[in-house]
Amino acid sequence: MKKQTRFVIFILLLAATTLSVPASPAGALAQLPAPEGISVDPARTILVFYSSTCPHCHRLMQWMSEVEDRFPDLEIHNLEVVNSGDQPRRDYYHQVMSLYETEPRGVPRTVIGDKVFVGFAPDSLEDRFVPEFGAWLGTRLAIMRAMQALQAGL
Fold first, then answer.
1. Which end of the chain is more exposed for a tag (fewer CB within 10 A), N or C?
2. Residue 13 phi/psi, 5° resolution?
3. Distant-in-sequence, close-in-space partners of 68: CB < 8 Å, separation ≥ 6
4. Distance CA 113, CA 43 (A)
């Protein structure tokens, strides 16, 4: 009898912890307090973390502004996290990177659904994970696919 009771308690505890943990980083993203003026709905929000002095960041943001009309239901938020002096934004960047289990180094970082992209290699056709950064290579093709998947989920 004691063995059965312990087993039932174990199953109940396991179920309780499983139910309280979000199924994905994107699901947990909504629970993080976002910086002032930013509303995050993981089903429709794209976060771009950048530096004002980063040429790759500016190329990414320029390209995203060119394609965002194709995705009217998605919201793109560009967050300066290196040179802005805005500590809440830097803290948010670190919290998001921690949530996605990736190192908070290097920009641009683009968060779309359950994926994080690092850098912007517009002409690359590679679809690869970059283990040193714990993120996917930010190519036009990979980012566009992630945006399409996010839009399709709405």
1. N
2. -65, -40
3. 74, 76
4. 7
This prediction has a pTM of: 0.82
From CA 142, how far away is CA 5, in angstroms rounded?
50
Would you write out the chain's pLDDT as a tens digit for each of its 154 residues?
Answer: 566 655 545 454 444 444 444 457 888 888 888 888 888 998 999 999 999 999 999 999 999 999 999 999 999 999 999 988 889 899 999 999 999 999 898 899 999 999 999 999 999 988 899 999 999 999 999 999 999 999 998 7
Other CB atoms within 10 Å distance of the CB of residue 86: 15
Q: How many helices (H) and strands (E) does the chain have?
A: 5, 6
Residue ranges covered by each domain of the chain: 23-152
CATH topology of domain 23-152: Glutaredoxin (3.40.30)
Upstream peptide bond of 55 is cis (omega within 30 degrees of 0):
no
Q: Name which of 45, 61, 49 is nearest 108 in CA terms.
A: 49
